[in-house]
Task: structure prediction
Amino acid sequence: MIDYERFHTIVRTAGEMALALWPGHGHAPAVWEKTPGSPVCDADIAVDAFLKRELGALLPSAGWLSEETVDHPDRLERGLCWLVDPVDGTRDFVRGRTGWAVSVALVSEGRPLIGALSAPARGEYWAAIAGQGATRNDRSLQASTRTVLAGSRVPTDALPKPDADLVIVDKPNSIALRIAMVGADEADLLATLRWGFEWDIAAATLIAREAGAATSDAFGKPLAYNKRDPRDFGLLVSAPAIHAAAVERLADRAAKLA
Result:
């Protein structure tokens, strides 16, 4: 059993910690690169340490997998595991933009049980429990019900020529927030064709799925979490009726890039 109230207090507090360090509030964070093109800042590290301590105390039996913590294989031996991105959307964060969120999910046997996104710069708190629906700011979510791929809203900066029949909508840097947009019926399709990590998407895909969206990797296969290699190639989150068409459209591109 988990104390859900305590869980949400921890995630909200983590969001407020990040907000207090956000340049949008006048803070100038220390920023460096873990690898070329992969920025990290002092807020990532502070929030990660806070979440590891507090979530560890909340559920000591659970393993831990986070973007900012060295991976330890003992997580594979545990039935439960926390998947955490302390600041998803670091590029927006360090530029003082609002498109970032703290992302936390608890997974069991490869599937998310609970998930939350705290996006305080946007005044948003997203949450879901498996089998119990999803909310934003305590209001129930209903995912996009679009039935035709052409004209679908996609959160992106630009579209390749084969996808010119789609419609660009606002794109936060946080992949988690872009996924959640499908669950909130603010987008119809989110698609990536690259290798991505579980901690980026675990909470948000639960939120989207509980709101009624379809989720898969780029090939249409189900997503699984807390794997030895915590990555998947690509991601598709969409209105259920257009999911198969999106998989078909991207199949050749995905096969060439995987």
